[in-house]
UniProtKB/TrEMBL annotation:
Parts of the chain that traverse the membrane: none
Protein keywords: Methyltransferase, Transferase
Molecular-function GO terms, alphabetical: methyltransferase activity
Key word Transferase present: yes
Pfam families: Methyltransf_23 (PF13489)
Name of the protein: Class I SAM-dependent methyltransferase
């Protein structure tokens, strides 16, 4: 297996790292992977993950819900319930920040297509990109969406979109800085870039440590703190406009983390941890399990 050996920090360019922890891939392989931290800027990443051309098999578990759309098990049913709630919240957030009721929208890493379908029904002209052939086919079959492969991202003309969204996608992308540059090129000058990522400084991340499900190695290559996300935006000519917590994520992530711990009642224990995390994020949104970042061009 060819692995991605990171010898230079993608955020600051320095090359001195320290090991933070070793996490296990609980989804597909059972393999251990090391998370490292840049000693200069503190950015964290998964070292020696499979390269993009070979990581596909780590997404092939039928439990990988964003690709399979499985309803199997109580935790996945919770996921679907939360997603229905979040679709409306995402639409409101986009309308508020863009000032538009409709326009051009690109959703990157669209999974099975629920979000672009939701926005299309509300009058938006949507484009979507997804790596998984199974997920692309689901979106086509269920929503009549023609979803492009990732290679199409660089083919979009300059200033094509009013809104670009990446919902839990940026942490998967191998070519991180190249992607940021492309996003800057294809976003309109007055457009908005919306990125949601897990938060390794969250309450639940601190509680579960190496068992925190949102580390999700090796699929998650990058682990963005709020500070790191703001710095990446600034590096690529973006200004952070707003930050929003995603407190519901703590429930699903905590339930999975309890499952990985082999707890006897993972749903109930995860529910309790999610509730704790919810109250913490009400007081300090930067400790939410996941965060939504809204960027504008400088």
């Amino acid at each position: 297996m060819n692995t991605l050996k990171i010898d230079k920090c993608p955020l600051c360019g320095e090359s001195h790292f320290e090991e933070v922890m070793t996490c296990t891939d609980h989804y597909a392989s059972g393999e251990p992977f090391t998370i490292c931290r840049c000693t200069h800027c503190g950015f964290q990443f998964t070292q020696s993950a499979p390269v993009e051309a070979e990581i596909g098999r780590y997404y092939e578990s039928p439990d990988y819900i964003s690709h399979s759309d499985t309803h199997k098990g109580l935790m996945n049913r919770v996921y679907h319930w939360v997603r229905r709630f979040m679709l409306a919240r995402k639409a409101r957030l986009i309308k508020h920040n863009s000032g538009l009721s409709r326009g051009t929208l690109l959703d990157i890493g669209t999974g099975t297509g629920y979000f672009p379908h939701f926005m299309q029904e509300r009058g938006w002209r949507v484009s979507a990109i997804e790596k998984s052939p199974q997920a692309r086919q689901f979106a086509k079959t269920h929503f009549a969406l023609d979803v492009n492969q990732p290679e199409a991202l660089t083919d979009y003309p300059e200033k094509s979109f009013d809104v670009i969204t990446l919902w839990h996608v940026m942490e998967h992308l191998e070519h991180l800085n190249d992607t940021w540059e492309t996003l800057s090129r294809i976003l309109k000058d007055r457009g908005i870039l919306v990125i949601a990522v897990p938060n390794p400084t969250s309450f639940d991340a601190k509680k579960y440590k190496d068992m925190w499900a949102a580390y999700d190695v090796p699929r998650h290559l990058w682990h963005f703190t709020p500070s790191a996300m703001q710095q990446f935006g600034a590096k690529h000519n973006f200004i952070l406009s707003e930050r929003h917590p995603m407190p519901f994520d703590a429930f699903y992530v905590s339930m999975l983390s309890e499952k990985y711990r082999k707890s006897s009642i993972p749903f109930l224990k995860g529910l309790w941890s999610g509730t704790e995390a919810w109250f913490v994020s009400l007081a300090k949104k930067e400790r939410s399990s996941s965060m939504i970042y809204v960027f504008r061009k400088k």
